[in-house]
Amino acid sequence: MSSKAKCEVCDKEVNPSGLKKHMLTHVPQSEWPHSCALCGKRMQARQDVAKHLKTKVHANDNVPLEGTQEWNDLLYHDKQGNCEPPKKKQRVLPQTFAHEPEVIDLDESNQVPEDATWEEENYEAYNEYYDLNTGYKMPVIQFGTYKLKGIDCYNSCISALQIGYRGFDTASIYDNEELVGKAVKEFTNREELFIQTKLWRSYQGADPKTGKPKCDAELKKSLRKLGLDYIDLWLLHWPGPGRHLNYPPVKQGMTRPKTVIPDNENTKVPTDWGPEMRLQTWKFMAKHVGEKVGSIGVCNFSVRQLQELLDYCEEESLQIPAVVQNECHPLLQGTQVRELCKSYGIVFQAYASLGAGSLGLLENPSVVKIATNLGVTPSQVLLRWAFQHECAVVPKSVNPERQRCNIDIFNFELPKEAMEELNRLETAEKGQNTMVGWLREHDPDFY
Questions:
Q1: Most buried among 69, 125, 228, 382, by the most CB within 10 A?
Q2: What is the distance of C-alpha 214 from the center of its chain?
Q3: From 165, 174, 351, 447, active-site residue
Q4: Active site includes 174?
Q5: Are 390 and 131 in contact (CB under 8 A)?
Q6: Which DSSP helix (H) or strand (E) runs through 178?
């Protein structure tokens, strides 16, 4: 029995979830159900309106922040000119820099002790810095923004600034560069900030028609969204190709090897991707260093891929990576990559330092015991473990109390016994580079 649904107009078989949108292809655009309140352009779906409002078409139209009442008024504008907001409205919070904004708690697993207090009203956290091989300094602890959207992203960045974070990690694929940019504009001294973003994997190589590097336009787009003249660090997000329409290459899971989905080879973006293309893309990215970019680096590279890139840089007289950002925590420690980075003077930056819900790192008995003995939180133990392994980190929380906890790791030290106990928690296979970060992807070394 076919799982497809048949269009009554053209008899084409489509997925049931896409039938309604397909039917609109047989209707004049003037009759499409949704429209942009600013320019009147008609669209098929509400999601199309949301994407349209974020494009450069309305870059000068002062489009409100996603999640605010004003945003809802634009998004839920029907073809009669009425506004039909969703039944459940998100509470809109004051967006002033003078007072710390109240934020919605989305990070319940990161527990804060009940007796935790912050005595100073104008609390500003202490941070340390690593020296990059390009001569710049990078904060050891930056504020991560993965999966943060709308008003929550803006409020979280504002509270992070007030607490003392001076570094922000975002990416073009996170779809929140504009919100991060709006927040950092509230801070007057740009020179004190360290902003890093990432080039998405689909934009490797050169345009086959013009021969121009695809990354050039993406850098301009990131700078425009962030509202900045330059970024401090630009990272290549993934060593492999993108996927057409987010088609996953493997079935979801943490085990290796992963089961390849049929027709995987036909979904690559760029379609002509090969390992040499990531080297070519690095060369393209390196041309921007010193102009719009302070330093460049890579994410999710295996030892083999990183060594290959380092050899290429030597052959071509190119800048080597200043930073390598990979998943790293006690369950997946990335020892080989970290050691290679250290030998070349590259800063290793850990993401997913607190693990994820499925890993249960914050509830791990060893982590909880060490935290209790030292009078700190489990998240502080995990971040301090990373710091004592000479890693930079990018923790995320929308809760200001937890944001303070996450940056407050420099006034205690994990004893040797605690470090050894946490080191024994490793469950990753030799050479494994991701565990929870890319569940629907091959391990990076596949590429």
A1: 382
A2: 20
A3: 174
A4: yes
A5: no
A6: helix 177-184
